[in-house]
UniProtKB/TrEMBL annotation:
<dbReference type="GO" id="GO:0003677">
    <property type="term" value="F:DNA binding"/>
</dbReference>
<protein>
    <submittedName>
        <fullName>Transcriptional regulator</fullName>
    </submittedName>
</protein>
<dbReference type="InterPro" id="IPR002577">
    <property type="entry name" value="HTH_HxlR"/>
</dbReference>
<dbReference type="Pfam" id="PF01638">
    <property type="entry name" value="HxlR"/>
</dbReference>
<dbReference type="InterPro" id="IPR036388">
    <property type="entry name" value="WH-like_DNA-bd_sf"/>
</dbReference>
<keyword id="KW-0805">Transcription regulation</keyword>
<feature type="domain" description="HTH hxlR-type">
    <location>
        <begin position="17"/>
        <end position="118"/>
    </location>
</feature>
<keyword id="KW-0804">Transcription</keyword>
<keyword id="KW-0238">DNA-binding</keyword>
<dbReference type="InterPro" id="IPR036390">
    <property type="entry name" value="WH_DNA-bd_sf"/>
</dbReference>
């Protein structure tokens, strides 16, 4: 039996829409710079200054805000080393390592259907242009 439009509207109003789980799953990753920060930290741990230099255009305030959010969401781990000059390092958490297959799948999708495939096609056209003029 197919649900009526009223039943479907009630499900959506109660937060039981088919996409609710996807929206909730994506929430910790939503926000400018979060994916970039995760990608950089997935390579190795970084100090704050290294991270900032790796992300041209990010402000100190925005980086601090995003790091705090991501730490609260369990995506990154912050380690403080009590040395004469305080040293703090950031790295991805064990849970965030579980995102690597999803990121890899996203890149593969993009190479086949998305922006990376369009860029590759444009690059091939540009490379072919000198041959056409000859």
């Amino acid at each position: 039996m197919c649900p009526s439009n009223d039943q479907e509207a009630d499900r959506i109003a109660n937060g039981d829409a088919p996409y609710t789980k996807l929206i909730e799953a994506m929430r910790p990753l939503a926000g400018k710079w979060k994916i970039e920060i995760l990608w950089i930290l997935a390579q190795r741990s970084h100090r704050f200054g290294e991270l900032r230099r790796s992300l041209p255009g990010i402000t100190q305030h925005m980086l601090t805000l995003r790091l705090r959010e991501m730490e609260a969401d369990g995506l990154i781990r912050r380690t403080v080393y009590p040395e004469s000059v305080l040293r703090v390092e950031y790295e991805v958490s064990e849970g965030a390592h579980g995102l690597k297959p999803a990121f890899k799948a996203l890149v593969e999708w993009s190479e086949q259907y998305g922006p990376l495939s369009r860029q590759r096609a444009a690059d091939e056209i540009v490379r072919a242009l000198p041959n056409i003029a000859a």
